[in-house]
Specification:
The chain is α/β, with parallel strands linked by helices. The protein is 27% helix and 14% strand. Helix 4 links the parallel strand 5 and strand 6.
Amino acid sequence: MGSHAGVRVEDVSVLDVWSRLETDPGSVLIDVRTRAEWAYVGLADLSSLGKQVVLLEWQSFPDRRIDPGFAAKLQTILDGAGVERGAELFFICRSGGRSRMAAEVMVAAGYARCRNVTEGFEGPLDAQRHRGRVSGWKVAGLPWVQG
C-alpha cells in the first residue's frame, strides 16, 4: 500500500454534500462507520433524493482493524450499482478521520473524485465531551434515520 502522499481529497461540508447529492444523480454517499454506529447513532437518509447510502466498514469492531479488502469490496459494490469511475464519491464517518483515509485509498484505486465529509455524521466533541451538538450531518438538520 504505502503512503498516499500527493493524494488530494477535498473536504466538503455536510450542507454542500447534500446539495451535490441532490443535483448530481451519479454522486454517491459512502458511510464507513461500524455496524454498531449505524444501528445506534443512525444513518443519513437519502430517500428523498431517490438514493441509498452505501454502507461499508473501514474498521472492524471491536478490534478496530482496518479492513485490507476495503477498496476491493467497495469497488464491487460500486460496479454492481453501475457507479462510474468518474462519479463524485462522498465518504462520511463519525467526525471525518476514517472517511479521509477511506477516500485516499479509493483515489489510489482509480476513483479520482473522492471527497471527505468534513464534520462527519456527529461532528467533534463539545465541551461536555458529547458529539452531535457542534456540527455534522445531524446538527445541520439533514435527514437521518435510526439504523
